[in-house]
Amino acid sequence: MKKVLLSIVTALFAASAIFPATTIKLGYSTGAQDPRGVASKLFKEEVEKNSKGSITVELYDNTKLPSIGMTASDTALIESVINKGNIDMTVSSAGNFGVYATNVGVSALPFLFSDFYKAWKFMDSDIVKNVNKELENSNIVVLAHYDNGFRCVTTTNKPVNKVSDMKGLKIRTPANQIVMETMTALGARPEPLDFGKLPAALKAGQFDSQENPIPVIYNNKLYKVQKYLSITNHSYDAMPLVIRKDIWDKLTPTEKKVVQEAAIKAQDLNRKMVKEQTDSLVEGLKKEGMIITRPDLTEFKKATQSVLDIFTEVYGQDLMNKVKAFTK
């Protein structure tokens, strides 16, 4: 009997040597309490539990990234996935992936969706699934779509109630061409900056304004360096959760199923949190001293029509027709 047990133990050790556990490093540019951080924690727990130890997930929020030689730069995180660097997975705004697969950013077009449910339906559609396949040429597989909410404008010295209030504002944006073109169409002067550098830049007065979803503004305490919030909802911010394709291809079918199911559970939690926070945190921002305005968006939509025309040239009439048909 002892010989049999010894043989089994020896076989298990041999198998573990042949098939070592896969370690996946997931990094993101915000804090662990941000909805993407909470959802990523659930992803880790689900993968490790259901893979029965064959996959370990290490999480790196903006405070832990320096420990592996990374900064809280979405561009750097995405390029790490592409180039097989220190990060194997990340979650970032869809527009940030547009540099590597142009059509991925289409969901960020101005005023495309009127509510979360319509946005989610689009992100789960075959249109987006087909667009995402373009990223595989850059070693990226999209597992799910987190949510960052609808982007809104905050300002330091004056409220935004109408398009003319945007004129000349130096506004921080992500390196997202659609968002930058949208701000330009509204009369502002957009300048990209990594999110991790934003609070300090606002405190130093480098910008008059910035734009982000309400949960991001609250969770990252941007109310400490911005006085006014204008609920413009000018762009929906979908966030693909991605993994290195070379790692994905090495997973067994069972492991892929575990990872995919965990990604969808994380996505659903993230979406729920972002919607709830978008609905509830406006009052929290008021309590922190922010002055909230809700402008009539009719003229904002009219002013940004030119952005749709510009990106029809970028995306092609066929894709734009599909998007318009789906979202009308």
Number of helices: 13
How far apart the termini lie comes to 71 Å
What pattern of helices and strands is seen along the backbone? HEHEHEHHEEHEHEHEHHEHHH
Q: Beta-sheet strand percentage?
A: 15-25%
**Biggest beta sheet summary:** 9 strands, mixed
Let me know the number of strands.
9
Q: If you compute it from the alpha carbons, what radius of gyration comes out, rounded to the nearest whole angstrom?
A: 21 Å
Low-pLDDT regions: 4-18
Percent helix range:
40-55%
Name the overall outline.
globular
Q: Which structural category do the helix and sheet elements fall into?
A: alpha/beta
Q: Compute the average pLDDT.
A: 92
Which short descriptors sum up this protein?
about 20% strand; alpha/beta; nine-stranded mixed β-sheet
